[in-house]
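Many introductory courses stop at the sequence. We go one step further.
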Amino acid sequence: MELTTSVSIDEEHSVARIGLKGALNTDTAPEFEKRLQDILTHGHSLNVLDMKELDYISSAGLRVIFKAAKQAKNAGNRLAAANRKPHIDKVFEILKALPDMAVFADDNELDAYLEAMQNKVKGDN
């Protein structure tokens, strides 16, 4: 599955809204990271990832988002996620609950777990 993005800028309120459609995974994360980095360099006070059309996220996608959130915070700005579907929200919930230690043997094991959780919430068993 591919990832398409759209960007709208509200200069008056210093907000960039980035719409994501499709899958943010190992294949799509590198290009999305470049696009997101370009947007963050403009220094908008708030950068919103609109996830209403995001169908899947893997650990590679999460790394891009967390790295960007840290970058935005260090620049005195914010990165927010909006309109998360229940199965995407579940991934963020799981990550908040994980202890600060390695739980998975590797990225493949983590991705398999995240995919299973997303499918379970979507009812795809």
